[in-house]
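Re: How this chain folds, sequence and tokenised backbone to follow
Notation: Tokens come from a learned vocabulary of local backbone shapes, not from coordinates.
Start of record: The labelled sequence and token lines come straight after this line.
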Amino acid sequence: MNRYAIASVSFAGIFLLASPGGAQSKSAVASEVEAVYASSAALYQDLHLHPELSSHETQTAAKLAPQLKELGYDVITGVGGTGIVAVLKNGSGPTVMLRTELDALPVVEATGFAFASKVRTKDDAGNDVGVMHACGHDLHMASWMGTARIMAGSRKTWSGTLVLIGQPAEETGAGANAMIKDGLLTRFPRPDFALAVHDDARRPAGEIAFHAGPALSNADAVTVHIYGKGGHGARPETTIDPIVIAARTVLALQTIVSREMNPFDPAVITVGSIHGGTKNNIIPDEVVLQLTVRSFTKPVREHLFASIDRIVKAEAMAAGATKTPTIERLNTADALVNDSALTKRVGAALIRQMGPTHAMEGNAEMVSEDFSAFALAGIPSLQMRVGAIEQGRFDAAMKSGETLPSLHSSTFLPDLELTMKATIQAEVISLRELMAPSQRRS
């Protein structure tokens, strides 16, 4: 077996082996979810109508914090910028953290729904942009609030300390570390476990998936400046054309994954942006490429960067460029490794209570996010996925081969009711499993 292959834990037979400790009947949890759904759905629509960009989630935080205070949580705001920490102590037992994200994306919404966002603002670079919850963070927040209500109103079913965090700036990869640097793990009860749920645009609404071991990839942003010698488009012999160099570079970069990497070591290099030139008959002096680079392990990560550096510089040299390209690397997220024991325990509880057709083992993905910061801080962590696509639409797409809107798409919108109810149910089941009163432990 390749020593860098993705680890996984099989859940075969887990339903039969699951411990009964901490179990709640499916109907009981479902009825509790029904009781909070209307308020969470209303919150969702409000949040969807009023999205805010990363590190600017002031109004979003201002909507959530008072509701948590009303439920009896001790709430501190402004942690790591606009972050929220809400603590509810309920006797002895473990401390469990449940995270949600606050930020939206610079996307102009095109769903056509009545509550579609029409917000426009200036981003940090001064550009006028639309703003949309195109990644489901509004769903996460509204579900998180529903879970907060259920847990506050059912203290006999659990024991310990519940820490709810509303994290800013997940989309930029800055929010989790900002909260940690601001004392999240020292000023507040340090979690024994950390949980999160993220919606999934590739699964039917209501499915819950979990995957032990490496689950989400490293993500790195790379900016390449290629320098040439500008001039008249009709006299290319007097220039060194950086657009041609950039074109050759883009193609050559793809051979890193296809010809340098072991096929069992997942890796992605995507050139997502290329900028150069101002007019059809002017050869510019410079072209800028922006890349996203994905991997799971440190050796693969470093190999990718060494190869990018080699190819970018070699293509410039081959074209006779007199100025060496510059390559700027920004690590935006580290790989998320779901704790195996935690995943097995929570996965068993989910299968037991939601059934194996609704809760199941999932797969690792090449997407990334900064929830990994908590695992790297030494906290056993688990992020689950919840399907968000209406079943009929999902089935039709599987039959026809249609590509459904992905997360970050201007047309992505979750199937609200089923997705939200499954999210709340999964969160409550997971928390009660980990915080079962002592008399109910096996």
Remarks:
- Confidence is low (pLDDT under 50) at residues 1-23.
- Residues 134 and 408 are 5 Å apart (CA to CA).
- The radius of gyration is 24 Å.
